[in-house]
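The passage that follows is intended for readers who have already worked through the single-chain material. We present the inputs for a multi-component assembly, then the predicted structure in tokenized form, and finally a short commentary. You are encouraged to pause after the input and sketch how you expect the pieces to fit together before reading on.
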Amino acid sequence: MPPPLIVLRDVARIYGAGEAEVRALDGVNLTIRQGEFVAIMGPSGSGKSTAMNIIGCLDRPTAGQFLFQGIEVQGLDQDRRALLRRHCLGFVFQGFNLLARSSALENVELPLIYKGQPRALREARARAALEKVGLQGRESADPSQLSGGQQQRVAIARALAGDPMLILADEPTGNLDSHRSHEIMLLLQQLNREEGITIVMVTHEEDIAAYAGRLLVFTDGKLTRDSAQPERR
Amino acid sequence: MLWETLRLAVTTIIRNKLRSFLTVLGVVIGVAAVIAMVTIGQGSSAQVSASVEALGTNVLIVRPGSRGFGPPGGGEAAPKFTLKDAEALRTLPQIAYLAPINSGGQTVVYGNANAATQVYGSTADYLRVQNWPLLSGRNFAEGEETSGAAVCLIGATVQAKLFGNADPLGETIRVKSVACNVIGTLAAKGAGSFGQDQDDLVLMPIKTVQRRLEGNKDVTSISIALRKSVTSADGIKAVQDLLRERRRIAIGQADNFSVTDMKEITSMLSGVNSVLTGLLSSVAAVSLLVGGIGIMNIMLVSVTERTREIGIRLAVGASAGQVLQQFLVEAIVLSLLGGIIGIGAGLGLAYVGSIYMAIPFAPSGSVVALAFGFSALVGVVFGYFPARRAAKLDPIEALRHQ
Ligand SMILES: Nc1ncnc2c1ncn2[C@@H]1O[C@H](COP(=O)(O)OP(=O)(O)OP(=O)(O)O)[C@@H](O)[C@H]1O
Ligand SMILES: [Mg+2]
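Having made your guess, compare it with the prediction:
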């Protein structure tokens, strides 16, 4: 069995205090191994994004343990977590989070800049990533000139460009039609199978979740289902 | 990485032209003010020293009455000098040239044109003392001086007022009631150390002025050019000793005349000049400080405005240090940009100003370098606080920011 990449032990994430306390995550235990393709489902407000932020080293659990490659992330300072994000992770955010007034190419290049890659290499990689998501020819368009689906694909290209070992995608197909969604899922499957990239994806759609080999369901901040499934092709 | 940050800063600045411009406006104004002040100040100092140079050897001016500027007030009127005093002084070995002067304001008329000007009665040596060349014509002849002939030399301003572009040589002008033949014109000298127009004068033989204009035998002042080898102090001493003797001033009694050293006056003027320049420059420097606060203010707003951008950068792996660097470099580039524009504007202002004030345009490399350095400093100092605020943002909070 491949080594565990992500381990959550009794993880809780609590917002606010006292009466206004919100338990976004409440005693979550979870192990994701290298090379897995995991889908997360659950009703709105069930803590999916919160879990993704913790796994993405953007946020820290209020209680419990989070290990990334055996490293206890909650003990790391801001800059160490920034290094983890920079070198190991690719994030596709629920709201795209693209830089306004910057072209698609510049957006995709962004993580590569912080990796310290030379400009020519960066540009080549960014172009290749945009091509993978079917956006060749739109490199110089900025987000306001792109449709929602195109923006989402730029966000996916940005996550791919840095050669991450783990891609975290929060509703990567939320704005895509079924044809595009299918293409993107095949792309993720291909990255998962051929390059061994671990993928954790949040979705609301059963048929999108079906592309993953494992399904997690969150309800009220708790992990209520964790099952293996055959990957749809 | 620094290079990338620099590129990013320049890109951001270019993408937000108006905001960038407003951000640096304060620094632009501050730097421009400092540069203009200092450059104009140095120009006028240069002019003062140039007029010292123009004197050639040192010039002394001897006047009756006690020393001081402005109207000779206080005490009883001291006796005037006479031409005999001038003759006696001329024998001093320290003196190269000497010119007795009797001057007064008069109206001069030529045809329909007239001008109020200063008429100087003196000798041919007046121009030698002043180291003042003729533009055309000739100086007074000896016979004209002794006989008190009605001839005159005119300054450039008078020439322009009376004759325009016409040739004044050989023409007759009327000075008060005296018809006077123009035998020469003086080269233009420009404004003097006090800003007075040195070309607004008519020069006549002193005897002519004494007899026909003023109706007295007075010498109101004596201009003396010392020999090159003589120090001012020695020259002044010799003149004082001789005049005290001639005017019978007892030992221990104060002089009833004054000897003014023109070099001393001009250097004192340049002192006043540099104090003024310093004062104005420090006022300008305060505006540079205000400009720096302007940069800080807008950078702070910009950090809030760009919270999401900062969150995105942090999320894709930027460290706090890199975010700090980005905002700091942006502030420095902005203020340097402001500095450069300000230097350009300041030099331009100083250039226009020096033309208007008829002083030399004297830009100084060290002041420009100082202004440049100072604007970089403004960027660092006032950019640091907003940059640190940006770097301290929490990535999740920043991403949630609308
Ligand atoms: N910064 C915050 N402050 C307070 N409460 C928060 C904060 N972030 C999330 N929450 C709360 O935590 C709970 C879980 O939020 P989360 O974003 O993880 O839900 P989600 O499962 O991703 O929902 P969706 O499907 O709508 O994206 C919600 O009740 C939400 O209101
Ligand atoms: Mg969510």
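Commentary: Residues 79-255 of chain B form one domain. Residues 38 and 281 of chain B are 6 Å apart (CA to CA). How closely did your sketch match?
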